[in-house]
Amino acid sequence: MSYVASPAVRKYAGDRGVDLAAVAAQTGRETLAREDVDRHLSGAHAASGADPTRYWSVDHAAHGPVTEEPVGRIARLAADNLQASASVIPQVTHHERADMTAVEALRGELRNEAAARGLRLTALAFHVKALARCLRDFPRFNASLSPDGETLTLKQYIHVGIAVDTPNGLMVPVIRDAGRKGLWAIAADIADLAARAQARKLRGEEMGGASMTISNLGGIGGTAFTPIVNPPELAILGLTRTSTEPVWDGAAFAPRPICPLDLSYDHRVINGADAARFLARYAALIEDPRRLLL
After folding, report:
1. 293 in Cβ contact with 272 (< 8 Å)
2. What domains, with CATH codes, occur in the chain?
3. pTM for the whole thing?
4. Cα(first)–Cα(last) distance of the chain, in Å?
5. Residues recognised as catalytic
């Protein structure tokens, strides 16, 4: 069925993996708007013809005191993208662990140099560097699938997104050309982007085009989670709190700082073996971080 949609609506649908021709056929509408895309994603045009969100319309005040607050624009945009991701992408999460002993030792050796540079060398800088190396070694992870699922775009650049929790909602500034940068430059970028994200001073071009995103909950806690892929990326890496655990060294158990790793990926492009190899390589780089400096 033929249809009319503005370029903005086409981009909105494409970013969410929605086939506008299918929407037009399902709705019988010839002129499509963003609302048609949203209704399609919510399942309003399912075979039953019923809107599943009708069950959410509840008079909560009938059960006790309540207050209301508006959902901010950034939070609404993030929610739209996550809903589309969960609706369209078959996602699987692979779990691994990395021994942070060598990273922590190297950070200790570099502490004075970091102070002299006016920087704080966090473990996250090593994670960004390791991820950039893995994206180079596993090019199918550094790719995007077209909305129709027929074309895989392999990227020649490596940009790493960093999910930042702000009072205004989740923001994902991007470290450009992370594969070409050293630890000091990455550490400086992390500090700068995170500070400006908190202050809502990021420019629009600083929050798009990532090869993959890191969602780091290590400063809060947790032992594992299943991060949602941030389309049009094909995978996302989740980090939770490093904890001291007994590890067998061949002769005895020794206390080691262990960081949980959670890799969610788009199963249309990446299979389980690919994900396992990717995360095993990642853990090996973290456990021998001097290789990242070569």
Report:
1. no
2. 4-68 (no CATH), 77-293 (3.30.559.10)
3. 0.80
4. 56
5. 267
